[in-house]
Amino acid sequence: MTRTTIHLAALGLAAVAAFAGVASDVSAHRRGDGRGDGRDRFGLRGLIAAIGDAGTREFTASVRGREARVIVTEDAMIFRNGSPATFEDLAVGDHFRALGRPIARDPFVFEARALGAFDGTTIPGRRAHAEGAIASLDAAAMTFVLHNGRRGTDVTVAVGERTRIWKDGAEADFAALAVGDRALVRGLLESTDAGRVIRAILVRVATPGGGGGRRR
User: Fold this and answer.
1) Which CATH superfamily, name and number, covers 126-206?
2) CB of 11 within 8 A of CB of 126?
C-alpha cells in the first residue's frame, strides 16, 4: 500500500482503567491521505517495561504478553499525559500507543515516529480528524479555528513544532495558513477548560481553487 495517512494511534478509551485492561496489539492503517506518510502505516500499543539510555532512544514493551523493542526516532512527536514531551519524560509502567513501522517486517521490533504515553492517572485523549474552513488564526498561540459548515461546528486546532503541514501539495508552516483555506486535520482530541482542542499531527490545506485538496 502507498501514501497512507499519519494517524497518531488512538490514545483514548472511556478511562485509563479500560485502556490498561485491553491487551495491546499491532494494527495496519489502510487509508491514504497524502504525501510523505507511507512509512507510518502501523500502530503499536502496550506497556513500557524497561527504558534504555536516552542516547539509544529505545524501550522494551509488553505487547499482548510478548516482549517488543521500540525505537523512537529523533524527530518523533511525543506526548505524555496529553502534553508535548521528550523521550526522557517516558517512564516504566506508562501505557503507550505509537505510530510508525515494524523493522525488517518484525511487528515486535518497531520504529516509532509518533508516540503517546499515559501514566495511569490521566484519562487519555482520542484520535481525531476534522475538516472544514479556517475561520480564524492566532499566530501567538499557534492555533486556528476550523469551521465545518455542513455540521455547523467549530473546533480549535493547536499546531506544534513537529506538526506536519502541507499546503497545495507542498510542505509549509503555520505562517502559510490563511482564513478561508480548506483544511484536513488529524491529531489528538482533548477537552480543556476552553473547550475541545485537537493537537495536530498532520494538517493538509488547500487554498480555494488550489491543488492541495483531499485526495481520493
Assistant:
1) Nucleic acid-binding proteins (2.40.50.140)
2) yes
Q: Where in the chain is the domain with CATH 2.40.50.140?
A: 16-118, 126-206
* pLDDT digits 0-9 by tens, 43-64: 888 899 999 987 889 999 998 8
Cα–Cα distance measured from residue 151 to residue 30, given in angstroms and rounded to the nearest whole number? 26
pLDDT tens digits along 105-129: 787 899 998 888 888 665 555 677 8
Q: In this structure, what C-alpha cell is assigned to residue 97?
A: 500507543
CATH fold, domain 16-118, is OB fold (Dihydrolipoamide Acetyltransferase, E2P) (2.40.50)
**pTM (2 decimals)?**
0.52
Mapped onto helix, strand or coil, the DSSP state of residue 87 is helix
Looking at residue 113, the DSSP 8-state letter turns out to be E
Nearest-5° Cα angle at 123, 98 to 108: 20
Are 196 and 156 in contact by the 8 Å Cβ rule? The answer is: yes
